[in-house]
Amino acid sequence: MRWILAIILIVVVAVGGTAAYLYTDFQNFMQRPLAISADDETLLIPHGSSYSAMVRQLAERNYTQLSWHWRVLGKLRQEQGRAQYQAGEYQLNMGATPNQVLDQIVDGDVVHRSFTIIEGWTAARMRQELAEVPAILRVTADWDDARLAAELGISAQHPDANILEGWFLPASYDYHRGHSDLDVLKRAHAAMQTALDSAWSARDEGLPYQNPYELLTMASIVEKETGKASERPEVAGVFVRRLHKGMRLQTDPTIIYGLGAAFDGNLKRIHLRTDGPYNTYTRFGLP
Question: Rounded to an integer, what distance in angstroms lies between the CA atom of residue 197 and that of residue 193?
Fold first, then answer.
């Protein structure tokens, strides 16, 4: 009987010792930072990626090793309701533990990027710059202006006008990997509509504009006429007075815009004398 009790005691001690060792080992795993060597490293989680696929990706990047610890951690997070992982691009920081990285992915704490539309860019320049952003999906790259305008609900205000011109607010727009160029363009267009509606509703009485689009046209001309914000009220005032008096605007930026790619940086007299829809030297009113 004594030897049976001895064996039972040995088994209990062994099991208890093993359990204690495994518990300590798991706690050490939880507290041990992943082998991330720099703060600017990123991890891309595809849509529909499983927990095991995420762990394998971490192992393939040599941030960790595949082991039973990850399986136990996955089960624990399921029980805690912290296992709904979101697709996206995540920045991994030095010193991050397994739980901290998984919390990022559960919370959707993705890398935020920014695309800036610069004042003075034409719609063509804006689309070109956006097409060169590497982390964004190029949905509209093969679309012509008419198709993009239709998608955004922009209608031509004049048969000779570039249908997209002026309809995107110069500002910075946040996006993250997985967003498309169309997402950014929609927000930039909505921002311009909001800004234009606000300016139109707050306009002074007696201004020579028939609709918000004419106000937008004048703002674009003033912006190109001077790069100094302090000079713009005076320049706008000059143009408003010319319109009230029935004079031609006679502003070079409209000529340059009409020349498009043919403009080589040298505005000549023949350019001012050659009639066209954007020539404010030969035509009255807003172009």
Answer: 6
- DSSP type of residue 119: T
pLDDT at 39 > cutoff 90: no
How far is residue 184 CA from its own chain's centroid?
6
Instruction: Report d(CA 190, CA 194) in Å as an integer.
Output: 6
Residue 118's SS3 state is coil
> Residue 200 has what pLDDT?
94
pLDDT tens string 50-71: 999 999 999 999 999 999 999 9
- Give the helix, strand, coil percentages of the chain, each rounded to 5: 50, 10, 40
Residue type, 52: S
Query: Dihedrals φ, ψ of 173, to 5°?
Result: -125, 125
Q: Retrieve residue 216's tokens.
A: 């937008």
Q: Which long-range contacts (CB under 8 A, 24 or more apart) does 130-135 make?
A: 130/181, 130/184, 130/185, 131/181, 133/181, 135/89, 135/175, 135/176, 135/177
Q: What is the pTM of this model?
A: 0.76
* Other CB atoms within 10 A of residue 110 CB: 20
**Residue 230: other Cβ atoms inside 10 A:** 7
Q: What is the pLDDT of residues 119-171, one digit of tens each?
A: 888 899 999 999 999 889 999 999 999 999 999 999 876 655 678 988 999 99
Strand 113-116 to 41-45 pairing: unpaired
Angle at alpha carbon of residue 161, lines to 126 and 284, rounded to 5°: 125
